[in-house]
Q: What sequence folds into this?
């Protein structure tokens, strides 16, 4: 993974925490968005941990560029304020989730692992509040293209994804294996023509499958 933050102490602190885990490796750091793009292009990491407010190019624009140009790299955004306008912009740009900068070391490590695994790092309450904001009321109850093609089980999985559950949590709730969950999520993404789990959440709310 790579870590981007314009504050050197913060960046190196996060990098040290992440690098201490036996299953994680920090392959690069960046102090601004432009530098981040270069580091991502060079190393093609699984995850980029990105601060929102950076010079030269902010984290929102950098996230948009990364998700468009390097789809194999998932972005975990760091923010100082819970649910500020930058977070909404980041999710629209393709980020897989976000954490507050005062996150504990254990939560940071778990968060990166979840994002690397393809999960969406948003708690259930946060998910509902976020989707309520950018799934416009006028567009709700409009079935997403491909929704009718989902099997009964795929609809069940979609609903759990929309509630903010991780693959492990979905497996436990539906009494299926984690590998089966991953397979279902991949098929749902394909059928609904969604880029990631965040878009699946939005599609579920806009189709009227869930309400806030």
A:
């Amino acid at each position: 993974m790579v870590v981007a933050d314009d504050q050197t102490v913060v960046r190196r602190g996060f990098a040290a925490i992440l690098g201490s885990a036996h299953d994680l490796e920090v392959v690069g750091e960046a102090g601004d968005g432009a530098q981040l793009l270069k580091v991502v292009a060079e190393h093609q990491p699984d995850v980029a941990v990105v601060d929102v407010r950076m010079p030269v190019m902010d984290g929102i624009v950098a996230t948009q560029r990364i998700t468009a140009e390097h789809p194999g790299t998932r972005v975990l955004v760091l923010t100082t304020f819970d649910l500020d306008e930058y977070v909404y912009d980041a999710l629209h740009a393709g980020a897989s989730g976000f954490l507050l900068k005062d996150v504990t070391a254990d939560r940071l490590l778990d968060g990166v692992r979840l994002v690397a695994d393809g999960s969406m790092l948003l708690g259930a309450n946060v998910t509902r509040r976020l989707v309520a904001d950018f799934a416009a009321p006028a567009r709700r109850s409009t079935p997403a293209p491909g929704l009718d093609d989902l099997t009964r089980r795929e609809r069940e999985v979609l609903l759990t994804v929309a509630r903010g559950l991780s693959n492990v949590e979905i497996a436990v709730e539906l009494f299926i294996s984690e590998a089966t969950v991953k397979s279902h999520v991949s098929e749902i993404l394909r059928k609904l023509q969604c880029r990631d789990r965040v878009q699946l959440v939005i599609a579920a709310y806009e189709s009227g499958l869930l309400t806030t």
